[in-house]
Amino acid sequence: MDYNHITRASTPGLAFGSTLANEYLAMIFNMRWVIALALILIIVDYRFGVRKSELQGESFRWSTAQRRSLSKLLDYFCWILVASTMALAMGEWCSVTFGCTEHVAKMVICIGIMFFCMRPDAESIWTNYRMCKGMPQMSFSKFVTRLFINFLKAFNPKVGDAVEDTVEDMEKDEKEQENNETPKGHFGDRRR
Hints:
Elements (H helix, E strand, L loop, with lengths): L3 H27 L1 H25 L5 H37 L3 H31 L7 H16 L1 H24 L12
Helix pairs in contact: 1-3, 2-3, 2-4, 3-4, 5-6
């Protein structure tokens, strides 16, 4: 039998596929530290989640905890592929638009997407850690805000104080707004 027609027909496809695979592998290799961070987050979340359950006296099954951790690992791998695809698709455009190299633009896109995806786990780790150590609860976003303000104060105290005053005013306004809202009935404010 003659198989030359199969080889001739599949050569462009193989070239395209191997080029695409090489680009993906290169991007994933460049994201190796983000992958390591994802693995560390999964392990730490597993550890503090189990510890929190033990301290609260909740019953849990090891198989469920392990299944959820494996599910997170697969979710992160899918997000890494999505981030890599978006970086490959938008890297050149972003490098031209923002005036940086294409490699930097791709990495910023990938890392931005991955940190956006890892935020819920970081928040879970934060609350579980504070619970295990007996610390008062504080939201993760409030912690990040305070960290940012302290960072600003280290470089420029006036700017840090101004941002801190603004954040405190915004928190006061939110509390006042929550206190002033009247509970609505099932059908809203309509009166019969």
